[in-house]
Each structure stands twice: as structure tokens, then as C-alpha cells.
Amino acid sequence: MNVPAPDPDLLQKLALANRILYDQNVVDAFGHISVRHDKSPGHFLLSCNRAPGLVRASDILTYDMEGDLALASDKRSYLERFIHSEIYKARPDVMAVVHSHSQSMIPFGVTGQRLRPIFHMSGFLGSGSSLFDIREDAGNTDMLIRDTGLGRALAKSLGQHNCVLMRGHGSTTVGESIEIVVYRAIYAEVNAKLQLQAAALGPVSFLNEEEAALAAATTEGQVARPWALWAEKVGSLD
Ligand SMILES: [Zn+2]
Question: Within a domain: residue 2?
């Protein structure tokens, strides 16, 4: 199948998003961000197997909804690309996906505690994160989403949430654009830190669902402001 070339500006933005997520401590040498193809909704764009802090536009590859390369390449693929393919398949509203092992989220996944919106910046958490336990679907594994079946199970656990915790592994966050999903991945990690601190003090009064929705509409409507700051900080590689 012939896939049209994506907008070059989208490739640049996706490469920049990789470096922002590294600069903001959401990803380290591992983790990734993808975006749905702007001209072919049945495809998505994802870097080759490279540390996010080093990703350039020329590293971005095009995949189909089975997680296979749309155009042959001798570059290696990420093992966990099926996270992205199965979420795009299950959620037509999702335009961008971040998968990370950001540290403050891990304690929640292993205790079955939901991440809930502790302040207005994380209103996108709504009624809370969902939880995926790979052992329930696949028994004992290396914890990675390395095929379509595991990706499908993860997408099912995500449901209509914006964030799913993955027990003993990390988390995956979705959004309507690269800017929004980067914002959410950064503030999900901030929320996790604050929630851990607040829970140590006593019972926490979280934003309720209506407050969360109102706050999300306001803060995410201003996403261009933090994006410009984050982008300026990492600069250009190309
Ligand atoms: Zn992972």
C-alpha cells in the first residue's frame, strides 16, 4: 500500500517532542512518543529504536495498525510499538501517545492505587487513571508489550481514560495532539509526586469530575505557552 509522505513539520514536531520528554524527565533512554499520520489515519509515526533525547526528524518511521513498517527500513523498531498501534486502532479520537517508565507513577501501578487529579494542571486525569496488569492477560512475562495481543489488552484497560498505569512497568498517556499528550505526560508525573506527598499527610481532597473537566478545558487551551517554553529549552538538532 502506498502511504503519502507525512507533513515535514509534523516530523520535526515529533522529533522535538521526543527531546522535550527527555528534558522534562518523563523518558530516559527508554520510552517513546508517536503521532497519528496526518494524511492516513490508519498509520502512525514513531522514531526508530533510539533514545528519545537523540531523536531527529530523519529517525521517524511510518507504521501501520498492526505495528508493521509501512515502508521497509533497515533501522530497528521499538519492541513496544504495539502499545501505539493498538491504541490508535481502539481509540479514533487519539492523535498522539506517550509511553514512559517515569518514576513517580510506578508506586501507583504496583499498589493498585489510581492516579487522581490533585490540582488543576492535571484535570485530564478526570475520574482517575486506569490500571493494566500484564500478568492477568499473559501470566509471567518480561512485562513488555511486545505483540498485538498484549497491545490490545492494554488498549482495553485504557478504555476511555487518558492515562493507564502498567503494573511493574510504567504508564501510557494519550491526547488529541502532540502538544497535549506531552503536556499530559509531564503533568501526570508531577501529579504522581504531589499525590504521594499529600497521601503521606492525610486523606486527600481531589478535584471531582466536574472540577477536573473545567480545569482541563482551561489549562489545555493554553498548551501553546508551555510548549513554546519546553521547545525553546531543548533547541533544534537539525
Ligand atoms: Zn515500556
Answer: no
